[in-house]
Amino acid sequence: MKNINPLGLFDDHFLLETLSKLGDPLQKLNKYIDWKIFESPINEAFKNEDRDLSKGGRPPFNRLVLFKALIIQSLYNLSDDQLEFQIVDRASFKRFLGLKKSDKVPDSKTFWLFREQLIEKEVILGLFKIFNETLDAAGVLSNQGKMVDASFVEAPRQRNTREENKHIKETGTAPEEWKVKPHKLAQKDIDARWTKKNNNTFYGYKNHVKADTKTKLIEEFIVTDASVHDCLRRYFVVASYGTITNGERRGTTALC
Q1: Could you tell me the sign of the dihedral formed by the alpha carbons of 188, 172, 112, 152, in that order?
Q2: Using CA atoms, how far apart are residues 111 and 81, in angstroms rounded to an integer?
Q3: Cβ-contact 96, 26 below 8 angstroms
Q4: Domain presence at residue 53
């Protein structure tokens, strides 16, 4: 049967209403979390980097929106490029982030930079701790079982010489000749690494995630270069009665 229904003014409203009836999991997060609790720690971390918008230039993206996008990325195991695409494509993601169809969506490089800044400022684990404690207090996390997974996040492959790659791998720093070419240095990634799995070669990073088995919500995650093994004994330890971090509670069983 041919669909002859014309476009209507309330089509978007009906679409979101249908998504809610079908059980949009992101709406459940909005039900339990007052996202304003994240604004203070995020703004505090960036307090010395806010620029004067009266001098011109494009206003920066709302950092709370960027953090909520990282929540989506963790829940759905998306790369930075896929995160950008899925937000553009999916109405439920836009609603969760408070974006309209006409709003500009941050690109993949913006997500990458924001995540790196949170890691560098050592606040990302604290933010996710607040996230998990809020859900735990609301009784959302079951604490009946945990699962650990690791996934690759590919980065643009570098066209370096063997000598340059050897220097980066051994020292973790950029070769001296790059430092006199700031534009070239800005395009180079010295933190990503190569690895091979199932005869496939990857270059970039690896997300290590610990999630609640019932709700599938992320409780902890760590980003490393791609060469680090899937199992992180010193970070992810699980006991039958709850979550243990860095072996702080006795009677734990290491995952590997």
Answers
A1: positive
A2: 9
A3: yes
A4: no
8 A C-beta contact, residue 197 and residue 204: no
236 DSSP β-pair partners: 245
Query: pLDDT (tens digit, 0 to 9) for every residue of the chain, 256 residues total?
Result: 455 655 554 455 545 566 556 557 788 888 888 899 999 999 988 887 766 555 555 667 889 999 999 988 887 878 889 999 999 988 888 888 988 888 899 999 999 999 989 888 888 888 888 887 888 787 765 555 666 777 788 888 888 888 988 888 888 888 888 888 888 888 888 888 888 888 888 888 887 777 777 666 666 777 788 887 766 544 444 333 333 333 333 333 333 3
Distance CA 34, CA 30 (A): 7
**Does one domain contain both 25 and 76?**
yes
Residues 22 and 131 in one domain: yes
Tokens for 178, please give them: 């790059």
Give 221's strand partners: 209
55 is a domain residue? no
Any bridge partners for residue 225, and if so which?
Answer: 205
Q: Are residues 208 and 148 in contact, defined by beta-carbon separation less than 8 angstroms?
A: yes
User: How far apart are the C-alpha atoms of 73 and 87, rounded to whole Å?
Assistant: 10
Q: What is the C-alpha to C-alpha distance for residues 222 and 207, in angstroms, rounded to an integer?
A: 6
